[in-house]
Amino acid sequence: MTTVRLGYIDLSFHHASAAVVASLLEQAGVAVQMSAAPHEQMFARYRRGEIDMLVSAWLPASHGGYLAPSLEKTLKLGVLYHPYCIWGVPDYVPASAVASVEDLLKPEVAERMSPLIQGINPGAGISRFSTAMMTEYGLAQAGYHFNTGTEADCFVRFEQGYANNEWLVVPLWHPQFLHFSHNIRALEEPKGLLGGQDQATLIVTHDMADQLPQPLLTSLSDLKLGNQAVSELDHSICRQGLTPRQAARQWLAKARL
């Protein structure tokens, strides 16, 4: 029996999409060994040949640099969803006051907005983009500071602030479970530092692809989860207590895949 070493980035929504991919592999009679790691570590493991398939590479902006050394050995399969990064504010923050990142510099906004912009791990695309935005927009001089941390640091900070009707900025992306349960408005970002829309691409080494049946490769290439489904899967895992595999089975049964 063929065994696929399936790697995925250690964030909850990547767990969700990886569980769907793993279920499809197993349905086709392929054994799966799953492992997770932060962004740079997972792409380094893929580059060293420790991983056969990776869920997923956000191309071209967020993860393109990580994948570049491994392009020659890589087959790009399906685009699972179309992620993009945002700086967002809760919907109760009036757009008339804060519509753009540049509006954060207004004295009356800076006085009311929380100075903490809490991010996730430093290797994530959103963290790299946010660090650049702090510099390019001069936000530190206006009193803001961007912190990296865990997923929980970022998400719980937002949920607590939202519950208290606090004005705050969250560095986030689509798809993500907070969008399933909260209304978050993306700020305009005129300098174009957030990378635009990526394609969340399932990648596999050519060596492994040669060992997999063509109908399975076709099925994986045709797999389209979409941003809304991934946000829903992520919410099922992070706020409803399902395991990634349970969430995947539930979604696959509904999608009849």
Number of strands: 10
Radius of gyration, in angstroms, nearest whole number: 19 Å
Helix tally? 11
Low-confidence stretches: none
Overall 3D shape: elongated
* CATH class annotation of the largest domain: Alpha Beta
Quaternary structure type: single chain
Can you tell me the number of structural domains? 2
Distance between the ends: 22 Å
What is the CATH third-level topology name of the largest domain? Answer: D-Maltodextrin-Binding Protein, domain 2
CATH superfamily of the largest domain: Periplasmic binding protein-like II
Q: Would you tell me the structural class of the helices and strands?
A: alpha/beta
N to C succession of SSEs: EHEHEHEEHEHEHEHEEHHHH
Query: Which CATH architecture of the largest domain would you pick?
Result: 3-Layer(aba) Sandwich
The mean pLDDT is 95
Beta-strand content bin:
15-25%
